[in-house]
Amino acid sequence: HPDPIRGEKPVVFYVSKKDANVDENKLKNYLKTKLANYKVPRVYYRLGALPRNDTNKILKSELRKFQLPK
Question: Would the CA dihedral through 21, 25, 26, 32 be positive or negative?
Answer without folding.
Answer: positive
